[in-house]
Design goal:
Layout lengths: L1 H7 L18 H9 L3 H27 L9 H4 L7 H5 L1 H6 L7 H19 L5 H21 L16 H26 L4 H16 L2 H11 L12 H27 L2 H9 L4 H16 L1 H14 L11 H9 L8 H30 L4
Helix pairs in contact: 7-8, 8-9, 9-10, 9-12, 9-15, 10-12, 11-12, 12-14, 12-15, 13-14, 15-17, 16-17
Length: about 375
């Protein structure tokens, strides 16, 4: 009888059918909790709103409503009360394609499309990780080199001296980041090696390329490296810059990978060894997938840093996207409209890097790196 009474008090209702507490909040309640939770937050929120009210209308009036978008000469801007965007329109091809042959710009457009498609490949769940790595590490760099340089498959050969504008920025940022990842992994593994020769070599490479500024290495790659080559042998300047960027970025990524390796519990290494799994199989199948997952934020941050550092190539004579803007501001015709040129350059950088940042958050959620 006692047992029957005890069982009768037990809630045998399935968990799915039990009433769940209602935690839904209205939009007004969420806004109040997020932006007006205390006196300081309320003050900051109201300050931002007032700043937008005071700044945004005049800014839109200057940048859009009173701006000049149609015309081809400086005289069309002198009568305008707002911004003059004619320098951007007049040199748009130079900003995007540099001096690339006009009849071959479709190859550059394919490179831009393939670069954007990389983001789709990474978040597409139906594509296996092996195919993603093959596409990003092997196929994409080869495709970019073939399309931009040509000389094969019936494509006309184009010298890197004709590269400029957004081509250089995308080319150096993307190729440098992709090729530096596998090299950074090997350097990180070599730094943890039990063999002194391998460990000392990897530590020396990492510390050497992390200790000196990027500008110094760019000068070394573009100017000094050619002096050590045999007489009559000349390596393309763009290839030398890519080589330097890959090494510098690999040294930075090696430390990121090493931090990820230290975050993996030592029991996983010991369990693999106890099961008789080899070193490289353990790393490729067990350890490295976890390391890459936890390292995604730092990896994307490194990529963003490299993308911005590509503007330093202007010092060695390469006309990148920012350099085209500076050349436009220094011209006699459009020198008065430097603010508009800087705003345009800043907006393009912001759009690209903000897209990469949001993609990073999407990839983190998909891989559940926090669990």
């Amino acid at each position: 009888m006692a047992t029957h009474k005890t069982l009768s008090k037990v809630n045998l209702t399935p968990p799915e059918s039990r009433a769940r507490p209602q935690n839904k909040m209205t939009l007004l309640q969420k806004a109040r909790q997020r932006y007006f939770s205390n006196l300081l937050n309320s003050f900051l929120t109201l300050s931002v709103i007032i700043a937008f009210i005071l700044i945004l209308p005049p800014l839109l009036q200057w940048a859009i409503f009173d701006a000049v978008f149609i015309g081809s000469t400086q005289e069309a801007c002198e009568v305008a009360a707002g911004a003059c965007w004619l320098p951007i329109a007049a040199r748009f091809d130079l900003f995007v394609y540099g001096f690339y042959p006009e009849t071959e710009t479709w190859r550059v457009n394919l490179v831009f499309a393939a670069s954007f498609f990389t983001l789709v490949v990474l978040v597409w769940r139906r594509i296996s990780m092996k195919l993603k790595l093959v596409y990003i590490v092997a196929f994409l760099p080869a495709l970019i080199f073939v399309l931009l340089y040509g000389g094969v498959f019936g494509l006309d050969s184009v010298s890197s001296n004709k590269f400029g504008g957004l081509i250089i920025t995308i080319f150096l940022g993307l190729i440098g980041s992709i090729l530096s990842l596998p090299l950074g992994i090997f350097l990180a593994l070599g730094r943890r090696s039990t063999r002194p020769v391998i460990r000392i070599f990897c530590v020396s490479v990492i510390e050497l390329f992390r200790a000196m500024p990027m500008i110094t290495w760019l000068f070394m790659g573009a100017l000094v490296l050619q002096l050590f080559l045999p007489n009559g042998m000349e390596v393309d300047k763009m290839i030398r810059v890519v080589f330097i960027l890959v090494l510098v970025s690999a040294a930075s990524k090696a430390e990121i990978i090493r931090a990820g390796l230290q975050a993996i519990p030592v029991g996983q290494f010991e369990a693999s060894a106890a099961l008789g799994v080899g070193y490289w199989r353990t790393m490729s199948m067990v350890i490295m997938p976890q390391v890459l997952k936890v390292s995604i934020p730092a990896m994307l941050n490194s990529f963003i840093g490299m993308f911005k550092d590509t503007s330093l190539v202007a010092i060695i004579g390469l006309l990148d996207f920012l350099s085209v803007g500076m050349a436009t501001m220094n011209s006699d015709e459009w020198g008065k409209y430097g603010i508009e040129v800087y705003i345009f350059v800043a907006m393009i950088y912001f759009v690209i890097l903000f897209t990469i940042s949001r993609f990073s958050l999407t990839l983190e959620k998909q891989l559940e790196t926090g669990h």
